[in-house]
């Protein structure tokens, strides 16, 4: 491979799902739609990030005051994009989390959060750079490093056998600290009362993800056609109007998607 390539979980998954979508998004850089569920997810992520970051940096205020301040600050930024329903739903989620952490503090079982929205940039090889952001890193009571990603999806079924993202984060942790031999990893489901879908990865399994990224890098750099892979997901693609195959699959009539 003679070209440098920057990879992330989302870029790799997009290529694997539909090469045409990858081309539109990351090569041609077509504009993406600002969908409500994207805004909703970013809003909740930002409030939780600001809340935990406050205590990581030494905040001594009661949790309810800090959480309220964080919510108000983030809402001021997103005000023009948020509907009243979105605001209500977000506050219900954040208020639920406030109750969870408040109860944990009373019971002396508060989670030791080390970092939030941790950016990483890791050389997988001379030509391949892996970059991204980990929503949350904590140390559990048994001293195991625990990486977590917040999810605002309503349908949690698709997450239960998809560990690629969390394996990537575990790989980042082990690469930065080779003394780590095991990583706990979770999807935290914000719409499901902060339910955890959790697994644990041992070192051998974690390090295999490097080869997977190198394999994807080779495929991406050698790809010439970027043919679409059509499915029901085409109806939700940001680039549907630019893809004839996707339009046919989605059966678009007068701007309405009909199944």
Note down, in words, how this protein is organized.
The protein has 259 residues and is α/β, with parallel strands linked by helices. It has a single domain (5-222), classed as Alpha-Beta Complex (Lambda Exonuclease, Chain A). The protein contains eight helices and eight strands, in the order βαααααβββαββααββ. The longest helix has 23 residues, at 84-106. Mean pLDDT is 93; it is low at 252-259.
How would you summarize this macromolecular structure in one to three sentences?
This protein is of the alpha/beta class and 259 residues long. It has 8 helices and 8 strands. It has a single domain (5-222), classed as Lambda Exonuclease, Chain A, CATH 3.90.320.
- Uncertain spans: 252-259
- What's the architecture in CATH terms? Alpha-Beta Complex
What is the share of helical residues?
40-55%
**What is the average per-residue confidence, as pLDDT, rounded to a whole number?**
93
How would you sum up the global shape? Answer: globular
Order of helices and strands: EHHHHHEEEHEEHHEE
Structural class: alpha/beta
* Major sheet characteristics: 6 strands, mixed
Fold topology:
Layout: E1 5-7, H1 9-17, H2 19-27, H3 36-56, H4 63-78, H5 84-106, E2 112-123, E3 128-139, E4 145-151, H6 164-176, E5 182-189, E6 195-202, H7 203-222, H8 244-250, E7 252-253, E8 256-257
Parallel strand pairs: 1-3, 4-5
Antiparallel strand pairs: 2-3, 3-4, 5-6, 7-8
Helix pairs in contact: 1-2, 3-4, 3-5, 4-5, 6-7
List keywords for this structure.
8 helices; two-stranded antiparallel ribbon; Lambda Exonuclease, Chain A; six-stranded mixed beta sheet; 259 residues; disordered C terminus
